Amino acid sequence: MRSLYGFLLTAGFFLLTVAPAEGGLTCKEGHSGPTYESMQTVFDRKPFRPSVNLSNPTVTNISFTLYAVLGVYWHHEFLMWDPEECDGVTKISLPVKDLWTPDIIVYEFVDDDVSQNCPYVYINHTGHIRYDRMLRIVSACNLEIFTFPFDIQNCSLTFGSYMHTIKDVRVFPALSFEEISGNSKRYLQASGEWELVVIQGDAGILKFGIDEWDVITFWVVIKRRPMLYVVNLLIPSSFLMIIDILSFYLPPHSVDRASFKMTLILGYTVFLLIMNDLLPSTANGTPIIGIYFSVCLALMVISLVETVVITNVLHHNSMKFRDVPRWVRVLVLGYIARLICYAQPEDEPKDTPKSDSTGPCVTQPCAPAQTPTINGHGVLTTLPSDIPELKQICQDLSLMRSHLTSLQKGSEMQDQWCHVGYIMDFLLFRIYLLLITLYAMVIICMWCIWFTQ
Fold it and tell me: What is the pLDDT of residues 403-415, one digit of tens each?
């Protein structure tokens, strides 16, 4: 798709150079310059190209300054006089409507010319005519905005005759391309969104069928001033991404991290909707900054999914007292923990009750206990006893032991699942941080490349 770009050209001129007509213009005594009667014949020949020999082409010199005046110079062979005979007059002005003018156009022109015409031309005694006019050009330029807002555009403006071929009108630059570029930079150095880099030119021949036209092509190289888009797009997006990165430091087991991230995603979506008008709408392809915003939004969604997964690992699986699968222990607690340098805290030694063959409480059902007694001689003896209260106490202690054992096992499994969740959280956080860093480096490098050009 080709986008429309407007250029205001200033300082352009048409210049024609011809051999003096036979006899030239005459001047009467007491008159300053050629008389109107002597020029009436020239005015009557307006429809014809001013050349004594029609086999000789009319030379036209073109010069323009971006944001300035279009100037065209040409040579009129019938408008020549001797200044000594005309009181030293070397320059006059005449209405442009009474003279033949070259049909110089811009081939990339795609809109009506609404600029104001200059009604007069300046004529030198040698027959050179200068025609200055403001020309507002809306031209077609193929925009390359992949690096937006750090893009550099190269647009062409081709000047040439519309009807006269190379046999009739020859086109040459009136100034050097360096002078044209320097003059344009003085006008454009502090105006608008664009900054002029350089104006280059090339003279060539345009062919259509068997006919050839002499043309001049000016290449206008401009680059965008990105500060507006950096302040309004990149910096706010970076702030939201930094907050999303810092949200990983919220403890997932005690804070509702998911709600916080959902709020960030909603805010980022509103930001994109508001700033959508600042992005170019008509161009070839998609700018990398649009891809950057889409990827940032996708990363925020991925971070939310990661939070949901980690929350499920920390709360759901551990509350069901499921054992950590062996492959998870080997992969996560072994390799990934060492990869991300995760220091797993040492478990404190816990006192576990041990079975005592002499005690009344074992994991098996209680056996009949022996009641110690002392006989008449003072000797300690044991007598079998079947007291119900003692059996009940033994059963209660056995239940307490099994309950404590299950609690201890659940606590150990919960600690293992917590370690798995923390390790996965650290791993995904580092991957997320790496991706954000790579995107930031790409934007910074593009800005540096743009700044050095």
Answer: 776 666 656 666 6
**pLDDT-derived band of residue 252, with 50, 70 and 90 as boundaries?**
confident
Residue 34, judged by CB atoms within 10 A of its CB (0-12, 13-18, 19+), counts as buried
Claim: this prediction has a pTM higher than 0.70: no
Q: Give Cα separations from 217 to 3, 60, 166, 203, 264 (angstroms).
A: 19, 14, 15, 6, 51
Digit-coded pLDDT (tens) for 82-98: 888 888 888 888 888 88
CB-CB contact of 226 with 145 (8 Å): no
Please write the tens of the pLDDT for every residue from 302-345. 888 888 888 877 775 555 556 667 777 777 777 777 777 666 55
Cβ-count burial 152-169 (b if 16+ within 10 Å, e if not) = bbebbbbbbbeebbbebb
Domain 3-35+44-225: CATH superfamily, name plus number: Neurotransmitter-gated ion-channel ligand-binding domain (2.70.170.10)
C-alpha separations of 55 from 51, 58, 392, 406 in Å? 8, 10, 132, 112
Listed in order, the ranges of the chain carrying CATH 2.70.170.10 are 3-35+44-225
Q: How far apart are CA 434 and CA 297, in angstroms?
A: 16
Structure tokens belonging to residue 384:
């079998």
C-alpha span between 94 and 125 (Å, rounded): 13
Distance CA 275, CA 230 (A): 12
Tell me what pLDDT residue 268 has: 92
